[in-house]
Records
---
Amino acid sequence: MYKAKAYSAATPTSPLALDTIERREPTEGDVQLEILFCGICHSDLHQVRNEWSGMMPTVYPCVPGHEIVGRVTKVGSAVTKFKPGDIGAVGCMVGSDGTCPSCRDGYEQFCPNGIFTYNSADRHTGKVTYGGYSDSIVADEHFVMRVPGNLDLAGAAPLLCAGITTYSPLRHWGAGKGKKVGIVGLGGLGHVAVKLSHAMGAHTVVFTTSPSKKEDALRLGADEVVISTDANDMAKHATSFDLILDAVSAQHDINAYIQMLKRDGNITMVGLPGQPLPVAAFGLIYNRRSLSGSMIGGMRETQEMMDFCGQHNITADVEVIPIQKVNEAYERMLKSDVKYRFSIDMASLKAE
Ligand code: NAP
Ligand code: ZN
């Protein structure tokens, strides 16, 4: 074991503050990273504040962060993909059993014994896993991704969650040329989804509650932007979408979006509001529409997404902040005041 610096929350209502945590020394299959950048996902906030207490209660102290890019500092003797000095990246998962049907099919995210990067039982330390708001992390190399060399590292970090969470359902539901795709909520996930959907060739429409984001949405690659509070604007798109990705973090009316799907159209929830959303069955039965969900992605698909982003030069639009501003960043994220992802420059933690 060795000691690492981190920012943790001690209770659901306490601010994140400097802490010292224990990490394992790399075992033979492990990679140790010095963390350079870590994105701030809305899931970090949900988890820190125990907003998912029903499904995933938070264990304190909680060190969030699952959009991690770093420099390899040590590798175990069996590691083949990385050597010290390389750049590696860790997303939402650091382990799975490797033997269940989901793991065998490349869907580690659905493994019943999956280990999330934070807030999962840590069999090495006997405590809980700690995420990327830290100066280092150790993970099995299977869960460490390669980062294409042309990508800016601060902007690449958010791909590890915002990127794969939107890439996976866009691919699964066939986003591409000739398809009309809606993206609801222009936040961290939403803005990466717009870039990906555009790069896949789909006609991409953004739904936002923030009129001030209209120009940005077009710049990011949207073909059209709808202000979702404007009923006339919404009515223009009735029964016209093949696919809608809902990336909203709070309570909202999804029935309005279900109505916009054409025959056999699908709406996929990636946003995770703490409370259930009411669904009108009438909206679904007409036109045989479907409502589904999607959770991050497997390791093979995460690497595929990173490589796709390398080919299309896609990174998140980031506001780089020092870790000392993390609590302020959470408040701004709650007000949808972020363009469009905070990325923590972890060099700032060294100074503490
Ligand atoms: P975010 O950056 O805060 O973006 C959320 C966006 O939702 C906001 O920018 C805003 O967009 C919209 N919004 C917020 N409050 C709203 C309200 N009351 N009504 C309507 N729209 C509202 O969050 P994020 O990091 O992208 O995460 C989004 C959600 O996805 C979170 O719940 C997160 O936990 C979840 N998530 C899920 C997975 C998964 O595997 N499924 C992975 C990562 C994250 P506009 O200003 O454009 O309206
Ligand atoms: Zn996330």
Note: The chain has two domains: 2-159+318-351, 163-293.
---
Amino acid sequence: MSNASPPYGFRFADPENSYASLPASMFAHCEPTAVKAPVITLFNTALATSLGLDAAALNTPEGAMLLGGNTVPAGSTPLAQAYAGHQFGHPNMLGDGRAILLFEQRAPDGQLYDIQLKGAGRTPYSRGGDGRAGLGPMLREYIISEAMQALGIATTRSLAVVSTGEPVQRETALPGAVLTRVATSHVRVGTFQFAASREDKASLQALVDFVIARHYLQLKLQLQPQLASDSGSASNTALVLIEAVMDRQIDLVVDWMRVGFIHGVLNTDNVTLSGETIDYGPCAFMDSYHPETVFSSIDHQGRYAYANQPAITQWNLARFAETLLPLIADDPEQAVAPATDLIRSFPQRYAEKWLAMMRRKLGLFGEDPADEALATDLLKWMQSQAADYTNTFRDLSSETRPEGAPYDSADFRSWYDRWQARLAKNTKPLASSLCLMRNSNPAIIPRNHQVEKALDAASSQNDLAPTQQLLAVLATPYEDGPDKAAFKAPPAPEERVCQTFCGT
Ligand code: AMP
Ligand code: MG
């Protein structure tokens, strides 16, 4: 394999900050497998620039060689990461079976970012898989991850999709593609589970140190013994980390609930320590509101249904806490008690943040004891009407009372009057409420039927125009306008997409 020449703005991590500084069992050095005819299909110029990369140089035929995995940047040492994970509740050995960390980029903001190729060929963790990915699923990840970013939700990013010129065989033959995924790291709960399964305390400690340095530097202050005893907070590194990770995961799942996002495969290998949404497989946004909504074709029991996401996140965090028990205390009983207390505090912490989020969706300032009932009663009404989740909140964000079906009902009017009475108690003017609501309630989400239409045009007709158009609208999801009507409309019955697939 030849080396790529370097004028792309690459700024690699120092060796000691790199994933490769972890114990050797945590990863395997391996290089991408070249593809037949790499062509850049989508390129994210804004992201490239924010990473300090030279977009003009990368978005070229030479750049396609690099982002397709045919050349490797001089001086980089690509690797695949080892990890385990509970898939639908069952433990498994996994690892990057089709993803290769090409290098870690030091961005102008000082943060390190993983630059990873997904679909880059087989690795030592591929098991029976071909290491490849289809164009449709990679475009889907690009569209939805970038939509999440624009919605203000923590997420891995998509730098580029490269078509490979090779088919991948799934149920049918699909055009192949490689996605360049960007993340502040790819460390997952499953990464800790891998080290714990080997009873490898040294690797666990190294992972904790890596994660704190990469994602939770502010905890270092809290961990100074003097400060910790003064403030009454725990000085046990592992416990402090569990609490910090829990906080970020709660913020994340609250954000998903806010916009009606259903991840679809909340296995422990799909939960990042950074708090970024990862692994856009069968995820989808809910159209009409129902708490039990499931799209994933493999989620038969509804384990990862919309309303189960907080409880599943708590379950996943419990698995994370278990991995750290040997670092909390030598005596297992002494370790279990404080870890259990922390995990049990999840529902209360979640409930508080969820309610604060619903207050923002409803334009409520301050706190009133009846706020929670006001929010849940609206959701119950939406469920009874199969009302569109996004459009209902957006309709409420306008100056006047929404009219027409389903709003012309006594039930809705009585709820609306209660809400108006509560708004009247706000300490801020109505304009402030409307502004808060319009920044909390998107007008545009990546609706499944729109996404599928765009992907179909790209995969079967090689027509990227609908994808580009969709990406443009999704870039400003809180801005409404007459030109956006087509993207706001819920699916007609014949357009409804009820199932999504992992696409692996
Ligand atoms: P995911 O469903 O993407 O979370 O993947 C679960 C596991 O399967 C991970 O270890 C992936 O790397 C692996 N995997 C998924 N698709 C493939 C593939 N086509 N070839 C090899 N490994 C794969
Ligand atoms: Mg995964």
Note: The two ends are 26 Å apart (CA to CA).
